[in-house]
Amino acid sequence: MSISAPLKLYKDLIVPEWIDYNGHMNVSYYVLVFDRATDEFFDFMGMDAEYRAANNVSAFTAEMHVNYIGEVKEGEEVYVTTQLLGYDEKRFHYFHRMYQAEQGYLAATSELLCLFVDMSQRRVTQMPPPILDRLAEIKQSHAELPLPEQVGSVMRVNRV
């Protein structure tokens, strides 16, 4: 089976409850949309809820960077693409891009580093071969994608 590069696994509709006093989606709901996209990515890589429960494992987010680029408003649809940037035996690094669906502009990005965790000990542990194999397949399909410009961005205000 062919793996798209990047993956396009999640879309959502911006509901009234997500709108803030500025008339656009509140920052917390951007994170919610990215979190839901992460759940779809976990399912795609073979680490769905059933797998996690059966094997008493999970993934914890160790670091996350969100860049807000364009507004999205009530009633608009968004979709999220996911790019696997790298992985090792215990971690995986991936990147989401959220697009406003109708006009196609980039609304936000999220860079994440997740740790594979043994829930019985709540400690980072090595991923089993089926998950590592699936990550290898995804990474191979994403190998030619350029590194997103927001990866590794640093926030700072230069002193005057």
Describe the structure.
The chain has helices at 27-44, 49-55, 129-142; strands spanning 7-13, 57-68, 77-87, 91-100, 106-118, 123-124. By secondary structure, it is of the alpha+beta class. Strand 3 and strand 4 (91-100) form a beta hairpin. The protein contains 3 helices and 6 strands. Strands 1, 2, 3, 4, 5 and 6 form a 6-stranded antiparallel beta sheet that branches. 24% of the residues lie in helices and 34% in strands.
Shape: globular
Helix content class: 10-25%
Number of strands: 6
Question: Largest sheet, described in full?
Answer: 6 strands, antiparallel
Query: What low-confidence regions span 5 or more consecutive residues with pLDDT below 50?
Result: none
Summarize the structure.
Helices cover 24% and strands 34% of the residues. By secondary structure, the chain is an alpha+beta fold.
Write the layout of secondary structure elements.
Elements: E1 7-13, H1 27-44, H2 49-55, E2 57-68, E3 77-87, E4 91-100, E5 106-118, E6 123-124, H3 129-142
Antiparallel strand pairs: 1-3, 2-5, 3-4, 4-5, 5-6
Quickly list its features.
160 residues; alpha+beta; 3 helices; 34% strand
